[in-house]
């Protein structure tokens, strides 16, 4: 058995809640390093025996390390984990630095072990995602195939938030559009946009690892050869007027993105957002409609929502 370690740097008061969440999400074990353990120890009658300064232990806050077996592809559930942890302050629990790191553990062949769990997936009648190590032939002339290597950092396009985004793109794209893909990850939405007829696609991600992975996936799909992939913080500094902007990211980040999206979507254009849980849907909808977007359609898969919005034509 091989394992992936998820390391969460947090505050001491959130340790129990995060540990319980990790187990709920499928972790087989949890290890905790809490600065309060040392503080409480040095305050007791034998505290002078402990060399606090030189002790190899977390000095502030706490670290929760959760270990997930290879049968759980952690990147697929990581957005849900981040969303749940981000909500803890609503229940009076500080989450401190809230830094989340993922790393492989032990065996050197872990990087390929998870591949046996991923196979071609029919997203819709016209779209199929195929891991690049699988052989697959289109079942009809209309079927579009996306070859994808998720690596250790990204999923194969089957998470509900990605599925919702893909369906939304299939609904709105008619051909010839300029598309901005914000938080591109594996690049699957950009590749799909080209398959659906987009003329020009720009893909952005804050993470350089994501940018490199997305570029590799573009290179595997000739239809996406001209997609421009670059590192950027959401849409800051971007001045490209778009027919469609798609963002499959967490709700709190969508809220930050809305003003820039409004400025860059052409009148009559579409803004697609996904990665929204039920508890955040009303807040996101309120912010979107307050700036002027009109709701065209709300999509749902499992516990996740996506929204297709339209920027009204001038004068409407």
TrEMBL record:
GO biological process, one term: methylation
Known EC number: 2.1.1.-
Superkingdom per UniProt: Bacteria
Presence of the UniProt keyword RNA-binding in the record: no
Any one GO cellular component localisation term in the record: ribosome
Binding site for S-adenosyl-L-methionine: 162, 183, 205, 248
PANTHER family: ELECTRON TRANSFER FLAVOPROTEIN BETA SUBUNIT LYSINE METHYLTRANSFERASE
Similarity section: Belongs to the methyltransferase superfamily. PrmA family.
The protein's name: Ribosomal protein L11 methyltransferase
Provenance organism: Vagococcus coleopterorum
Upper classification of the organism: Bacteria, Bacillati, Bacillota, Bacilli, Lactobacillales
